[in-house]
Specification:
151 residues; mainly alpha; 8 helices; 0% strand; globular
């Protein structure tokens, strides 16, 4: 694979949503130079810590009183997040650990965090079960998803 070029790094950042969707769905990160670069970014220490911090903020916010009724932010699914605390804490632990993790799982949690209509957000009572299933899949993907071959 070798080192990535500046051009690939920039293009992978610009196309991150599309590449994350591809990686999250299980695409092999080693078969395309942009997908490989995005996978490198996802498993890199900086991105891992940024994603972990975002999850930690959601956990803290779920435990604190709601902000005012009229805010520009999509409300988080407090109950669903509290119900899935164990999975979210497990994801944070994996993201912060120096051990290898699959880019598939990082892509999956990144997409969940950015999806304002997804199970982390809103007041839909069905979000608890949906979030729990999604996070089970994320943990499994982090541990067992496609491997990025670095070389």
């Amino acid at each position: 694979a070798g080192t990535s070029s500046l051009s690939n790094r920039v293009r992978a950042r610009l196309r991150r949503h599309k590449l994350d969707k591809s990686l999250a769905s299980g695409a092999d990160p080693n078969t395309d130079s942009l997908r490989r670069e995005r996978a490198r970014q996802l498993v890199g220490e900086k991105t891992r810590h940024e994603v972990a911090a975002h999850v930690e903020r959601l956990l803290a916010e779920a435990d604190s009183p709601p902000r005012g009724l009229f805010t520009p932010r999509v409300p988080i699914a407090r109950a669903a997040i509290r119900d899935s605390r164990w999975n979210l804490e497990t994801i944070v632990e994996r993201l912060k650990a120096p051990a290898y993790i699959s880019p598939q799982g990082v892509a999956m949690i990144s997409l969940l965090l950015s999806d304002g209509a997804g199970p982390l957000y809103g007041n839909n009572p069905a979000h608890s079960q949906e979030l729990h299933r999604a996070l089970d899949t994320v943990v499994d993907a982090i541990d067992n998803g496609p491997v990025l071959v670095v070389g």
